[in-house]
Amino acid sequence: MAAPSVPIATAETAKGKARPATDRWGTVVEVWLRLHTFVVFLFLYLPIVVVVLFSFNNTTRRVTDWQGFGTRWYEFVFTNGEVQRYLINSVIVGIGTAIIATLVGTMAALGLQRAPRWFRFPFDALTYISIIVPEIVIALATLIFFASTIGRDGILTNLTGTEIGFGYHTIIGALTLFNISLVLLLVRARLSGMDRTMVEASYDLFATPWRTFWQITFPQLLPAIVAGFLLSFTFAFDDYLITTFVNGRGTSTIPLYVFGQIRRGVTPATNAVAALMLLITLGILLVGQLLLTRQARRQSGQRGGGVAGMVAEQSG
Amino acid sequence: MAVTASAEAPRPTTRRRDVRQGLLTALLLLPASLWYLILLVLPLAIVLLFSFGERGKTGGYAPGFTLDNYAAVLEHPDPFITSLTLAISGTILCLLVGLPLAYYIATRAGDRKGLFIILLVIPFWTSFLIRTYAWLMILGPEGLGGFIGDTIGQPSFRILGTEFGVLTGLVYGYLPLMVFPLYVTLERMDRTLVEASKDLGAGRWATFRQITLPIALPGLITGSILVFIPMMGEYVIPEILGYGQVYTMGSALVLRFLEARNWPAGAAYAAGLIIVMLVVITVYLWFTNRGRRTRDVSVI
């Protein structure tokens, strides 16, 4: 009994000696950590608050000229045909990209599991390249590619005699690339963390592979698929860089409108559009979060955290 | 093993089944492979090819083989230096801001960890363009820039159009990418190690330096890569907050391509950016494979 108490006692005295200093510094560090966290979150949310606040500015002149609270600029946006066309284009591009990227990405994640090793290595390399190469490089490379194949003087145009040209298809095609990789990584992470015994049990009970997939694998992958779909939508809806290079006549999206306004000088209407874009992207996140938490609750034993948790997990 | 065997046992593998399985695999992978080939490999190959070519008479590209375009990039290294400076200082700033934040969330937040992570994801998820645009107002002459100018009595003082303004936008845009991996490594940290270190008489700083920092290192490296790479190639943020005064690799590339219609020169800049990325990734992989015990943190 006496033997173990000796080292503990020395540890206590060592602690006791240093205690006054450690405690004071300890408090300082604790306070600083808390303050730092608070300030960083302020930093993260300040711009969002500023945009939303100024979108309710009732001014008729400059953006920063506060003339009281009003919804004048929302009325302008909702009655302005031009802005609405841009918004609709963005939604078309967002939904188109999200559907294709989710389908193709999920299929690829499932296929990769069964693919031979010689195939997996180059495929993985391309997945990472598509994410790592700067968007500006992809944007220009894609523009040159489209221009020299289906553009006015492109190879395909000269061969077939018909010009396909630029439009929704070029925007969605180019944006889908990055989002396929995104969905692929999300679904693959889920696949590797999946409970295999359920699949095996299903086979043991003589279920067909098709049925096993829809009844066992798919429900387990669903959170990743939903997260991938919503993320793809948001990225495509919000994309400026690639879209500005490969859009065609009449297919400009809302980020292009906002960027144009920034170039030419912002108006209070810009803020209303900006706040709307924030609202749409936030709404998507919220819907995803709700869907996933509900699904997680139904299937016990699932990890919670929803879309946000999945995104955080992925980048870790 | 027994379980796996029994799972495959009821379906005897015949040749026909093998072919069908192979076909299914190929079918599943076909669309993504096509996408990668047509819209990634081919365009990048074209850019690479163009970077060795010559400028056409009316702009665009003319076939040829020359290294002049690369020489031109090296002769005018300003945009490269600007981008590199911005990316390095942005990474350091993200680290200084992100490490205490990740540490707080991982060790002090308790039950509210999930909430904090969601709070980090929300701005990251909402429109990137709009959040950058917001800084235009905040830092502008009627915002912080003007306020500081008035305070120090220099009305010509500007934040927009300076590298500092761009840096603010960069750190703001990419901070979560630094925090997530740091949080993941710190969250898994064995807290008893910290207590042991303190029991052995080590001070706060010594414990941090000798226990916490080495444990956080993989997350720290991953986070740095995750923020450095997009910052290096960033175009939209410098374009908005730089007011055309901050000339980055991205701006140089676009200027060559679109305004000067000199495709080979632009392609050389693009190739230069890709080379920088490859070097960074190679160093990263070399770092992570060398003497690391656990490989729990990957690039993505």
Keywords summarizing the entry:
heterodimer; A: 316 residues; mainly alpha; MetI-like fold; 2 domains; 13 helices; 81% helix; globular; disordered N terminus; B: 300 residues; two-stranded antiparallel sheet; 2 strands; disordered C terminus
Description:
The complex is a heterodimer of chains A (316) and B (300). In chain A, α7 packs across α9 (209-238) and α9 packs antiparallel against α12 (268-298). Chain A contains 13 helices and no strands. Chain A is mainly alpha-helical and 316 residues long. The longest helix of chain A has 54 residues, at 2-55. Chain B is mainly α and 300 residues long. Chain B has a single domain (76-289), classed as Orthogonal Bundle (MetI-like fold). In chain B, α4 runs parallel beside α8 (163-188). The longest helix of chain B is centred in the N-terminal third of the chain and has 37 residues, at 15-51. The relative contact order of chain B is 0.12. Mean pLDDT of chain B is 84; it is low at 1-10 and 293-300. At the A-B interface, α1, α3, α4, α5 and α7 of A face α1, α2, α4, α5 and α6 of B.
Tell me the CATH topology of chain B. MetI-like fold
CATH superfamily of the largest domain in chain A: MetI-like
Q: Can you write the helix and strand succession of chain A as a string?
A: HHHHHHHHHHHHH
What is the radius of gyration of chain B computed over CA atoms, rounded to a whole number of angstroms?
25 Å
